[in-house]
Amino acid sequence: MEKDINKKKESIDKENRSYDEMIPNYEHLFNDNENKPNKKNGILKRLIKVNFGSLFSSTIVYFFQNLPVWVLPIATANIIDITGEAIKAGELTQTSLILLIVNLSVLLITTVLNIPFTVLRWRIVSKMLRKTSAGLKSVLIRKLQHLSITYHKDMQSGKIQSKFLRDIESIDGLLQALVFSFIPNLIGVIISSAISIYRNGFVALFFLIIIPINVLLTFLFRKKIKDTNKDFRVKTEDMSAKLSTMIEMTPVTKSHGLQDVEIASLNKTIANVTRSGMGVDNVHAYFGSLSFVVSNVLNIGCLVFCIFLAIRGIISVGDIVLYQSMFTTISNGITGLIGILPQITKGTDALSSVSEIMNVTEVERSIDNPKPININGDVEFKNVTYQYPNGKVNVVSDFSLDVKKGECVAFVGSSGSGKTTIMNLIIGLLLPTSGDLLIDGISIKEYDLQSYRHNISVVPQNSILFTGTIRDNITYGLERYTEEELNKVVEMANISEFIKDLPDGLNTQVGEHGDKLSGGQKQRITIARALIRNPKILILDEATSALDNISEYYVQKAISASVSGRTTFIVAHRLSTIRNADKIVVMDNGRCVETGTYEELMAKKGKFYELKELNDLNTKLANDALS
Known about the structure:
Helix content: 55-70%
Strand order of the largest sheet: 6-7-8-3-9-10
Number of helices: 23
Strand content: 5-15%
Number of strands: 10
């Protein structure tokens, strides 16, 4: 077992190292204690910091890539002035010809050089953006895998999917806006302003009036843009969550003829998202149109101003083109900087949304570089009490039980009595609120849970299969196994009873969620998946409760072959199936009220006897109803 775990760990580590080259680890971006969950700007700053090298180099390359934009107005102004002087003199002097050739050559060279610099910048930027997106997705996946089971129960899967897909896409958009809009526009404003000031400081002063006007425009729309984007994100998450629920409920919906009800419910949610989206679009439309109008009015003002200066002889005719181009670049640059405000707002809100998950503290305990764990299977509960976070009632109270290696212990009781909670405590999905759970005499709190779980297997009440073959589902997560081992568990789980009738045997596709198989067949595959890991502790959580009598017979036969030599915990639905258990624990309202063998408890005629009588009566009534 330890050898297999080591091999598997080495294989995973090797694979992860190859991924590290493409997927950076961004966990530290969210681990700074100084940054609270809503400090999205702090995360953005650290995200920029880790990519500073790429941002800086791409900015330098952008300067050379965009040279024609700044060279063209200067060269054009020079050419116009040279042409004007030649017209006045009636000839083109040698000096003027040389200047004309120099300006045209510079313009041509900078234009041609745009190609290699554009390709180089795209390579730098593409690598940075793709790796950043991969890093954020990877760190979110790791966080989701380490979150406690209670968090996953409280958080709808649709909302998590929305955060993973839509929010990370918005963060990608934020980074693209920084690279392709913010930095280029900022550089354009700075260089154009510098050229203008160098040519004529008085004219450059006129350009300054566009800054406070655009800042005022941004201030007026900033809060509205932020609020509408947040409202749209929240409503989109709700729609994603409801869509996920609708898909899961499809069999129930169809069997009760409630399709119209579901359609109406989803349409209402879609309408809310649509209205919210239209609100976002309207704000963006007003903001964009006003920015456009302000920019063009100022451009017209600049043109009139430059014509006036040229008439007065303060600037040349060629300078009208130069200053008009510079002013347009500055005005468009500032408009561009303001124009990306909605995208930046959307991206920072998405960072805040992702941070909601990254800052959740309900995580399972793990140890860096844990050593493989081999347990024997001794389990002891010592006055264990469990209460769910923010709960007011104990789900399990003062529970004590000593189970030796290889024993089979069954838990019975009414719904809500605490049986499944005890199973989750053994698995480590929950940890005791008080008291302690010892595995081989060591508190479960001292184990690395991931390593510990290599020694246990669980067969849940609802069999969980994924799209793939029967073989894939049985060997899920295993790097190495032999055909002999596979065939052994196939026999033990009684899969051979139905697999002989399948055309592709173990390579038969099971369909989505195993829909091509019956409930009993799916459950036996789940049992085989548990057994092929050769666990020291086996947990069967009401593994036969949803099955018909024939399916139960085969599954029960599989269970009987599975428990030998393992510490086994069974949550029983049909009490007749646990007759051979070494110990039966009767739960009621989170407490152990009886313990003993089947015969001992029946002879006592206490709580177990009552449950057995009620169970038999329900079985008889069900059989009578079917006959």
